[in-house]
Amino acid sequence: MKRFSFLFLFGLILLASVVPSCTKEEITEVVNYVPIWKGSLDSAPKNPAPGWAYYDTKLGQSFIFDGTSWQLMSENGQKGQNGKDGKDGVDGKDGKDGVDGKDGKDGKDGVDGKDGKDGQNGLGLVWKGELKSAPLNPQTNWAYYNSEEKKSFIYDGSAWLVLAKDGAQGEKGADGQNGKDGTNGTDGTNGTNGKDGASFVWKGELEASPSTPQTNWAYYNKTDKKAYVYDGEKWSILVQDGKDGENGTNGTNGENGNDGTIIVWKGSSTAAPASPAKGWCYYNSTEKKSYMYDGTTWQMIAQDGQNGTLIVWKGALETAPENPVTGWCYYNSTEKKSFMYDGTAWQMIAKDGKDYEPPVFAFTVNAEGKKVVFSPGNLLKNNNSDEYKFAANQWTLTEDGYTNTFTYNDIDNWNNKTIDGNQWYALSADEWKYLIGNGSSKRESATTLRKWRTINSVNGSVDGLVILPDGCTASIDADWATLEAAGAVFLPDNGVSYCRYWSSSPNGSGNAWDLFFGSGGVIVDYYSRNGRFAVRLVRSLK
């Protein structure tokens, strides 16, 4: 059974769409995608989407769907029939060597092992193409095909390791008895392409699992901090957030990376397409190779070869499994790396990457340029202890066992609340005024970057105040998912005395300043310290 190139699948990278541009102080996220492998089938899958691929067990061929039709990617060759033996004659000169027979088909797949524990997200391969020698200044998980050694290599952070190599030719058959040369047998017909395997269909970050899921749909649940994949019957945990490590020192800003290339599959043809654009790919049916155009030349990214090695996943283990067979793979939970057995030794194929750090959105709160970051939700306090925490979502008001409103005197120290390892405080009256534009000194575009409105959350419609970060270009009337991705802060209506949030500033012995807003406007007002209002904390950006 032919297998479509392992490296080719890793080389197909799709760029995710981006949210409206807003000023971010630290991190920008880019999401990568891979082709959608549907496995081995006896006919094409129904209702295909662009990028679907499969191996046809009846035809012995691999196909990929280009949005209009199924395009041939590769096919198996069959072993030709042996010619009949010639009659024995008198001893004469040695006959010519017989033609080597083609490789037989793969045996049936073994039974899958039990799923191992999910590991942290690893780094994706960065395919550097076909080269005569290793690229300079390599980075972890760079990979390339060495045209001189006929091998593919991957960089593990310290050395280049063999990832795959061209299959060796079969052993030469023994010479037959001397006699008259027999006529050559006719070549066998080419085998059909194999079906593509299935890959994840990433659905993004959601509050709950998507409805009417399909097999291999996957998503990240923002509520329980876990990623799931649908196996056709149920959602199974794919990976979950690890505990936060200790904060490291701030690194210097890195250089902007080069933009990725969108893959455009042009199908199967006997020659390269005319007037190519960067990212075009096609399968050359004459050369039995696949190519990608890099903007200057056509680079080979895969080629038909001998039957590959069947991958057998052995799960997550503390040490390598005993008596390994070529193609066995496992995740080493001690070293945080994945390995494949090549018949001689265990080769590393991936390792855990760094934890994802979300982008930071800044809000300027005074004329000197002081910037802050808002907490992820309103302040909550345990009814039976002095434990504080933040609401799970920006629109959440209450939670069983916790208080969500406070008098001014309930907060002993407004400027030193340690929650989740960070120091948080409440904005002063002057800082609230500067932020929302309620005084002569205000941040740029202050009044256009905030608005009373209704948003639609997973819990239904909620009224409140939307405040956008510095320099945000997203429309303040956009849907909430767009605004939240752009860094918007939402202060839900707490239903107490219209809608009020405490500042840290007192006003005489019996009153204190607060943020007061509703459909009629937004101001900083004062009220009796005995009023029970909501609290939203901030932390300073260093």
General description of the model:
This protein has 542 residues and is mainly β. The chain is built from three helices and 36 strands. Helices cover 4% and strands 34% of the residues. The strands form eleven sheets. The chain has a four-stranded mixed sheet, with no helix packed on it. The longest helix is centred in the C-terminal third of the chain and has 8 residues. The protein is elongated, with a radius of gyration of 31 Å. The N terminus is likely disordered.
What secondary-structure arrangement, pairings included, does this model have?
Blueprint lengths: L5 H6 L2 E2 L16 E2 L2 E6 L10 E5 L4 E5 L4 E6 L50 E6 L10 E5 L4 E5 L4 E6 L35 E6 L10 E5 L4 E5 L4 E6 L23 E6 L10 E5 L4 E5 L4 E6 L8 E6 L10 E5 L4 E5 L4 E6 L11 E2 L6 E4 L4 E4 L5 E3 L11 E2 L13 E3 L2 E3 L4 H8 L13 E8 L2 E8 L12 H6 L3 E4 L7 E8 L3 E8 L2 E8 L9 E3 L2
Parallel strand pairs: 3-4, 7-8, 11-12, 15-16, 19-20
Antiparallel strand pairs: 1-2, 4-5, 5-6, 8-9, 9-10, 12-13, 13-14, 16-17, 17-18, 20-21, 21-22, 23-24, 24-36, 25-26, 25-27, 28-29, 30-31, 31-32, 33-34, 34-35
Descriptors:
542 residues; four-stranded mixed sheet; mainly beta; 3 helices; elongated; disordered N terminus; 36 strands
The counted number of beta strands is: 36
Give the helix proportion (percent range): under 10%
Shape: elongated
Low-confidence stretches: 1-21, 23-33
Give me the secondary-structure category: mainly beta
| Whole-number mean pLDDT | 80
How many individual helices?
3
Radius of gyration: 31 Å
Roughly what fraction of the amino acids lie in strands?
25-35%
Strand order of the largest sheet: 3-4-5-6
Measured distance between first and last alpha carbons = 58 Å
Task: Profile the largest sheet.
Answer: 4 strands, mixed
